[in-house]
Amino acid sequence: MTSVEHPGGFGSFDNVGTSGHSGNQEVGAAPTITVVDSYEAMSQRAADIVAETVSRHPTCAITVPTGSTPLGFFQELIRRIDAGTLDLSRTQIFCLDEYLGTSPEDVASLTGWLQREFLVPARIPEEHIHYVPATADDPDAAAARYEAEIRAAGGIELAVLGLGPNGHVAFNEPGSAPDSRTRVLDLTEESREQNAAYYENRAEIPTQAMTMGLGTILGARRLVLIVSGAAKAEIVRQALEGPMPLDVPGSWLRLAGERLEVVLDTEAASALSGR
Hints:
Layout: E1 2-5, E2 12-13, E3 25-26, E4 32-36, H1 39-56, E5 61-63, H2 71-83, E6 92-94, E7 97-99, H3 110-119, E8 129-130, H4 139-152, E9 156-161, E10 183-186, H5 189-196, E11 208-211, H6 214-218, E12 222-227, H7 233-241, E13 260-265
Parallel strand pairs: 4-13, 5-6, 5-9, 6-8, 9-12, 12-13
Antiparallel strand pairs: 1-4, 2-3, 7-11, 10-11
Helix pairs in contact: 1-2
């Protein structure tokens, strides 16, 4: 495993978070970029961070991503739970996103996928799982209540995140502001096509989703971004070394400064300076 401190500071940003980390924070300290030899090592490093966090705060709130990247991470967490070396039974899990109007029983449900791949085999108690309220009659009011749930849980202790091909984090698509909160937004055609490939017969993907906002995510006390594969090398470079524009939402994670660790396999890191 190779750990590299990303050069340069990123200035300051006021009031990005309300989930337990104070605003008016200096973010000049650089995130840690950890480059590992393989997808398996990336998954193990992310699982190590979860284990460290839960050992200190067994009842804390964490987020976990969906998609293909975290599958190995989930398998490693489940392996440790089955071996008796990790206990997530008291941990609060907050989901990051869901298609608007979609229930866990629907074919193209991120929540249903997460239940199958992680929540059920990890034996997370149902009462400790906080689902994105994507089927609510009043989505805006439900999104505000979800933010209140996060605050009531003491804020997000650890946000484990993935990075989409267009730079999205959760479903914060290009154009998302760094102070955004849980809300409904339109999905890009690129994201819809990518996500359809995860389902048999390429399920029809809704045009809108509800997502935890970047400002909420940036309020986490610790953030971990996991990225794997050469296909994401260029968007990793843009997110970590380019400017921080609205059209690369992942770049806003740098505002977390030293609270952020980016875990990359060698292929995902291949476009970074000095690689």
